[in-house]
Amino acid sequence: MVSSPSLQFMLYETMLKKLKKRRASSKKDNGVTALEVFLLEDLAKLGATVVTYPLLVVKARLQAKQVTSGHKKHNYESTLDAFLKMIQLEEFYDFYKGMSTKIVQSVLIAAVLFMIKEELVNGARSLLTSRSKPP
């Protein structure tokens, strides 16, 4: 599913820009620490997961073997039909069943990856700028 990483990256970049802008306006160093990147990415992944997780639930239900002669709540004709039946016949909580496991798995991994990416970018940037300065 492409929507979750896209939303995650958008949220992360937006929060990072706001943090840097706030620091620039207060005349502080607008560099970002690894811990701040980790926390921003945690929030971004959490937000993206909360928004897109219902889509994963519906996708899983559509992919599961559907009972054609069973209860009508388990027989879906389309994605929209699955959403509508879940809204009508189940609780709101059912869209988020199992999300805690997904959060533990994906939020921490994404945060560590973004933290490493930012550190590599900062290291490469400082290496390139130090080589371009005359001795």
UniProtKB/TrEMBL annotation:
UniProt GO BP: nucleotide transport; transmembrane transport
- Does the keyword Transmembrane feature in the UniProt annotation? yes
Identify the keywords attached in UniProt to this record, alphabetized.
Membrane, Repeat, Transmembrane, Transmembrane helix, Transport
| Pfam families given in the database record | Mito_carr
Please name the InterPro entries in this protein's record: MCP_dom_sf (IPR023395), MCP_transmembrane (IPR018108), SLC25A32-like (IPR044712)
Its membrane topology is listed as:
Multi-pass membrane protein
PROSITE patterns, per database record: SOLCAR (PS50920)
Any Gene Ontology CC annotation: membrane
Per-repeat ranges for Solcar: 36-123
Protein localization: Membrane
Q: Which Gene3D superfamilies match?
A: Mitochondrial carrier domain (1.50.40.10)
**Family of the protein in this entry:** Belongs to the mitochondrial carrier (TC 2.A.29) family.
Q: What is this protein called?
A: Uncharacterized protein
